[in-house]
Amino acid sequence: MSAPHGTQERPAYDVIVLGAGPVGQNVADHARAAGLSVAVVERELVGGECSYWACVPSKALLRPVIAVADARRVDGARQAVTGRLDTDGVFSRRNRYVSDWDDSGQVQWVKSIGADLFRGHGRLDGPRRVTVTRDDGSRQSLTARHAVAVATGSLPNLPDVPGIEEARPWTNRQGTDSSTVPARLAVIGGGGVGVEMATLWQGLGSRVTLLARRRLIPRLEPFAGELVAEGLTAAGVDVRIGVQVTALRRPDPKGPVTLTLDDGSELETDEVLFATGRTPATGDIGLDTVGLTPGSWLDVDTTCLVEGVDGDWLYALGDVNHRALLTHQGKYQGRTAGDAIAARAAGRPLDDSPWGDHATTADQHAVPQVFFTDPEAAAVGLTAEQAADAGHRIKTVDLDFNAAQGANLYADGYPGHARLVIDLDRDILLGVTFVGPAVSELLHSATIAVAGEVPLKRLRHAIAPFPTVSEIWHFLLAAYQREQETPRAAPA
């Protein structure tokens, strides 16, 4: 049968990857390392959202803000901070880290691993088939021998609020690629994107109002959101919790935006940024051609194989499977799934038991996440509430960081708090949360302890060097040990 007009046929690939962000790159890399032929399809920039509009630019912009805040916490250094940030320098730094939105370096990387790159919109066309539509309207038909991996990421979820189109709101993209500092900015949403954007733009000189329906970063321990809110308020952000936007107006496209709030009050601002969650970028990738619902999150098994599709060929990685909308977790899934695809292709047995080579077990037990606010908030594993709801018999240990001399030397009056969530039956950590300056650098040690299920009796022998912020580990474990050794009064 000849190809439809304008469509080119091509020999089959072992694996076709939809999406060339970090997640797609990892599955492609592992499949190629196993000797499989790989086609990578990307409709935007190779490198994806993370490289150009999310993780990389946001952290490049936030670092100068946090560096100045750190200096102001050290006597002798704070006196040297005499001016405001050089915004041109900050934006220039961001531009370097996103390569001026030029993806040629990442294109070369895809080629260097021996994968073929197809630019255009990739869409499933039945089992193991993908059609790529280029900007000029021409189409390329591809066939996968073994697997199609969907790594198309997610999109901002804008609420259905009257006037939102007229308001032309920012999302994370404008929040990270803008080179103009608005005099006034309203940030809607108290999750990770919301608190980071509020931190960033307040530090660059905006007068920021942060509006959230409930406590900040609600998936972490409650104290994390409370301390982040205190830090934002101290920096000058107007933090309002328990507030919703009911309407927006922007009659003049170049004029201010007026927000109507659910208490009847109004707020005027120069720009408004919505950070109100994400939706899967699966609306137009042909899910209907394989019996799935367009625009849905994709349920997967432990190897990231999509459930409800016959033939063991369709995988979903990263944001689209809704397990953990974090780049590092998606990359982990990509590596694991790439190895699973290679094993299935070669007819080798899968090691998909918990913590096996082909199992994404960490998605359920040891997901690390960091919010680069001031102070930072970092956590891995379960909160106390999550652990109790899961039926674990737990104990929490809480300490302020000023218990550790290293923290006090790092910052005068170091503002921070730490919590361990302990499984009393197994004597291991189920979760760890740190809030404080630079605590992101402590999180990997916590992740190793949680993922490795290191017994606390052994963990006490992992000595933190003096004087470092990581000494908090010693004080947390010592506090728990003392409590365990304290004789309990006999019942009356």
From TrEMBL:
The keyword Oxidoreductase applies. Its cofactor is FAD. Residues 367-473 form the Pyridine nucleotide-disulphide oxidoreductase dimerisation domain. InterPro entries: Class-I_Pyr_Nuc-Dis_Oxidored, FAD/NAD-bd_sf, FAD/NAD-binding_dom, FAD/NAD-linked_Rdtase_dimer_sf, Pyr_nuc-diS_OxRdtase, Pyr_nucl-diS_OxRdtase_dimer. Its EC number is 1.-.-.-. It comes from the Bacteria. Keywords: FAD, Flavoprotein, NAD, Oxidoreductase. GO terms for molecular function: oxidoreductase activity. The keyword Oxidoreductase applies. Residues 13-330 form the FAD/NAD(P)-binding domain. Belongs to the class-I pyridine nucleotide-disulfide oxidoreductase family. This is NAD(P)/FAD-dependent oxidoreductase. It comes from Streptomyces carpinensis.
